[in-house]
Amino acid sequence: MSTSTEQQSTEAAAFLPSPEFAATARISSMEQYEEMYRESIDSPDTFWAKEANDLSWQEPWSSVLEWNAPDAKWFSGAKVNMAENCLDRHLTSSRKNKAAILWEGEFGEKRTFTYQQLHREVCRFSNALLNEGVQAGDRVLLYMPMIPEAVIAMLACARIGAVHSVVFGGFSVESIVDRLSDCQATYVVTSDGSYRRGKAIPLKANVDEALKSYSGVKKCFVVQRTNTDIEMIDGRDVWWHDVTEAASVHHTAPGFDSEHPLFILYTSGSTGKPKGVLHTTGGYMVGTYSTCKYIFDMNDEDVYWCTADVGWITGHSYICYGPLLNGVTQVMYEGAPNYPDFSRFWKMVEDYSVSIFYTAPTAIRAFIKAGDDLPNAYDLSSLRLLGTVGEPINPEAWLWYHKVIGGGKCPIVDTWWQTETGAIMISPLPGATPTKPGTATRPFFGVDAVILDENGNECPLNTSGKLVVRKPWPSMLRGIYGDPQRFKDTYWSEYEGYYSVGDGAQKDDDKNTWIIGRLDDVLNVSGHRLGTAEIESALVAHSAVAEAAIVGRPHEIKGQAVVGFVILKGDQEAGDELVQELRKHVANLIGALARPDDLYIVAALPKTRSGKIMRRLLKELVATGKVTGNTTTLEDPKVIDDLVAKLQG
Ligand code: WTA
After folding, report:
1. Residues 219-265 pLDDT 10s
2. Do residues 286 and 48 touch, judged by C-beta distance below 8 A?
3. Is 353 exposed, middle or buried (0-12, 13-18, 19+ CB in 10 A)?
4. pLDDT tens across 381-426, in order?
5. 16-83+262-514 to CATH, choices 3.40.50.1970, 3.40.50.300, 3.30.70.3400, 3.40.50.12780
6. SS3 for 334?
7. How far is the CA of 142 from the centre of ligand 1 (A)?
8. Is the CB of 267 under 6 A from ligand 1?
9. Segment among 25-39, 188-202, 518-532 with least mean pLDDT
10. CB 441 less than 6 A from any atom of ligand 1
């Protein structure tokens, strides 16, 4: 649900942080924000050195930033260990016996890890990885449920310098194969299965299937979660509990170069296969640490809960790394928000006295639909700060979140960022920034975000353009794995030396940035990025399909729904059975989240004379049922009439 420009009334009442919140917040006034922001832009070296000095470095940096666009080196020359900063650093203080993770399974089982216990488990698994031959720089693919072992595995990789690549558990066999072979992974960590709405979903079986098409994996570590019957291949598969039991709990964290790769995370682009976004160690660490500290205003007394999955960037930066770097206590939940019903989150907020809650607009819209009675039945008074991420939040959802969940007293941080940016880029600071429903407001420290027109000039206020970042920031991506040219072309070529975000945006009279949505052929379905090209190529991979076009249409809960149009090969029979088969085919090739909500078998697609599909017209058609946009470049205008008739049924 994109925020339409009409909705952006600049006169809309702003919500000011309460004096009580501001009184204890790290940043408590706009003057303080402006002053620090100025310093972060004018003297980034001084600003980021100060932030970095909160953390521990085994050897100091020789320079804070070396910038040769688009290549950045942050904290060059330093030696650092990410896991040591997340864990060992807290063991010499009272945080040692503080809960790091309060985990809850779908069935209500509870497991608690103090910082000391988490440290022991991470050391154990680090040693297990080393014992099985994993070396610094090796790529380890993780395909895991939301269980503590997922975080333990990420931290253990980081600890020994192995590069993790987490694949969301909802992705299919084909997606695993693509990612394994793109990053040439040699190790896999998975589990027998995962629970989703009470049902055991096979994970190891998917990995087995994937490993039939990719032979580079030496060892596969398997966590036992669902006790599902699985095949363990001799010499290749080992049980997590066996190898960790045999491993020592002692491990000294070695220092790695600040630019040592930390992880690769695949995300969809407008063309081709998903790209492996590469993040490195020192800068990403400082970026995730600082954003948690200032934007979530994390304190030792807080109980923080981010409802994302570790398979997405939010789970990396704001479940695994940022919160642990800050020594906070966090809740981690295994399953679905509606299991057994839509009161699950509110029950957990009450049970754990959650104080900071971070979720997605799509979830909020689903909660609204489920009714106020559910949250109203729980004591949510422990909450002091709310956050959202993933897509523009529609004002209705914002206001409901503020009133019904936040009791009218919690600031909301609407955080804009991306897999590529590594950390939050535009967001209110909760003790300082006046907020308005629907805007992510102001740039974080060090973020030089502007809105440019086609000619590279800054857009006047209240005029939309392309969002661009002009200066490097610590947690920025360092490349697309194995494809430096695609990295340059995708992000750095439109405006030479500037980072092109791919989102449209505009600023209001108060300098707030309103994100309008993706400008490229990327859909945002329930806050997840999906490339239209990726779904189209899945469809044409089916033997019945000659041509396919995918567009998004507004969807009440998911933000966008996936709509497909296909032209069949000459001899194929169109019918509902085939439609269902094609939808399933996409789910099999990519994952259930990419399955088209609607799929139309059509005789022709609207094309330009040069043969390009005019997605703009299809988009309008599925959103409004008609086409009023400019059709002068259409090769055959009659195609539109046929499509309108088809959609009317
Ligand atoms: C969108 C998710 C508006 C945006 C962290 C961006 C948002 C894409 C917001 C990145 C927000 C994310 N307001 N739009 N607060 N947060 N987006 O890589 O289009 O999965 O480019 O990272 O999500 O999605 P990604």
Report:
1. 999 999 999 999 999 999 999 999 999 999 999 999 999 999 999 99
2. yes
3. middle
4. 999 999 999 999 999 999 999 999 999 999 999 999 999 999 999 9
5. 3.40.50.12780
6. coil
7. 23
8. yes
9. 518-532
10. no
Which ligand 1 atom sits closest to the C-alpha of 515? Answer: 3
**Does the Cβ of 530 fall within 6 Å of ligand 1?**
no
Right CATH for 106-256 from 1.20.210.10, 3.40.50.980, 3.40.50.620, 3.40.190.10: 3.40.50.980
Q: Which tokens is 13 given?
A: 């009442």
SS3 555: strand
* C-beta neighbour count of 7 within 10 angstroms: 15
Cα(499)–Cα(470) distance, integer angstroms: 6
What separation in Å is there between the alpha carbon of 475 and the centre of ligand 1?
A: 16
Nearest-CA residue for ligand 1 atom 11 is 416
Which residue's CA is the nearest one to ligand 1's atom 14?
A: 391
Q: For 530-648, which CATH superfamily applies?
A: ANL, C-terminal domain (3.30.300.30)
Pocket lining: 309 vs ligand 1, CB cutoff 6 Å? no
- Amino acid letter, residue 184: Q
* Identity of residue 476: M
What ranges make up the beta strands (E) of 122-204? 139-143, 163-166, 187-191, 193-196, 199-202
Tokens at 606, concatenated: 């609207």
Residue 403, SS3 per DSSP: helix
Please name the helix (run of DSSP H) or strand (run of DSSP E) that holds residue 638, with its range, or none.
Answer: helix 638-648
Pocket flag, ligand 1, residue 334 (CB < 6 Å):
no
Residue nearest to atom 1 of ligand 1 (CA): 391
Here the contacts of 627-632 (C-beta below 8 Å, separation 24 or greater) are 631/606
Verify whether ligand 1 is closer than 6 Å to residue 531 (CB atom): no
Distance 503 CA to ligand 1 centre (A): 9
Long-range contacts of 372-378 (CB under 8 A, 24+ apart): 372/404, 374/341, 374/342, 374/343, 374/346, 375/343, 375/346, 375/404, 375/405, 376/404, 377/343, 377/346, 378/343, 378/346, 378/347, 378/349, 378/350
E strand intervals along 470-591:
479-480, 499-507, 513-518, 522-525, 528-531, 545-555, 559-568
Mutate which of 2, 391, 401 for ligand 1? The one with the most ligand atoms within 8 Å of its CB, which is 391
Give the predicted TM-score (pTM) of the model: 0.95
Beta-sheet pairing, 237-239 with 219-223: parallel
For the segment 290-322, what is each residue's pLDDT rounded down to a tens digit? 999 999 999 999 999 999 999 999 999 999 999
Give the whole-angstrom CA distance, residue 439 versus residue 435: 7
